Amino acid sequence: MENKKLQGNQRKNIQIGCEVEIVQKHHQRSGELTEGIVKRILTNSSTHPHGIKVQLETGEVGRVKWVIEK
Prior knowledge:
The protein is mainly β. The protein has no helices and five strands. Strands 1, 2, 3, 4 and 5 form a five-stranded antiparallel beta sheet that branches. β4 and β5 (61-69) form a beta hairpin. It is globular, with a radius of gyration of 11 Å. The N and C termini lie close together (9 Å). The mean pLDDT is 94.
């Protein structure tokens, strides 16, 4: 069973507790992705061109590139 991925630049695609792949500030050049579960949504606007900013349960903060749907 393959997971479906949604773009992370729309707030409506992201809920607390969902699994996402983010790019942290210090990994923007390399584009390295960090996977985790959303603890808080930090961006208030409905969309953002670089991705909605979130905090993961591990405390890491970054912009969502992909929302993983199971």
